[in-house]
Amino acid sequence: MVYAIVRAGGRQEKVSVGDYVTLNRVPGGAGSTLELPALLLVDGEKVTSAAAELANVKVTAEILEDLRGPKIVIQKFKNKTGYRKRQGHRQELTKIKITSIA
C-alpha cells in the first residue's frame, strides 16, 4: 500500500490515491489541480523521509468544492458588570480528492 504524509492547509494529513480530504481554503476553483508537498512516503516496506528524495515526489489533488464548516458560537461573559458578547464563526474549507502519488 502506498501512502504519503503531506502538508495540507496548515496540518499534516495521511493520504493515498482516491482519498477525500477537507482542509483550510486554498486558492483555485472546482476542477483545478493542486500539488501538495510530501513529508514522508511509504511504499510497501520502503519508507522515504530524506528531503532530497522527497523533492522528486509529487502528490497531486483535484479541487472538488469550496465549502464552510459548522458554526461555532463564541460567548464571553463577565459577572456583575453587564458585559456579554456573542460571536459566531464558520471556517472556510476546501474538499479535495488525491489523484496521484508519484
TrEMBL record:
The keyword rRNA-binding applies. HAMAP family: Ribosomal_bL21. It comes from the Bacteria. InterPro entries: bL21-like, bL21-like_sf, Ribosomal_bL21, Ribosomal_bL21_CS. GO terms for cellular component: cytoplasm; ribonucleoprotein complex; ribosome. This protein binds to 23S rRNA in the presence of protein L20. The lineage of its organism: Bacteria, Bacillati, Actinomycetota, Actinomycetes, Micrococcales. One of its GO terms (molecular function) is structural constituent of ribosome. PANTHER family: 50S RIBOSOMAL PROTEIN L21, LARGE RIBOSOMAL SUBUNIT PROTEIN BL21M. Belongs to the bacterial ribosomal protein bL21 family. One of its GO terms (biological process) is translation. Part of the 50S ribosomal subunit. Contacts protein L20. PROSITE patterns: RIBOSOMAL_L21. Keywords: Ribonucleoprotein, Ribosomal protein, RNA-binding, rRNA-binding. The keyword tRNA processing does not apply. It comes from Paenarthrobacter aurescens (Arthrobacter aurescens). This is Large ribosomal subunit protein bL21. SUPFAM superfamilies: L21p-like.
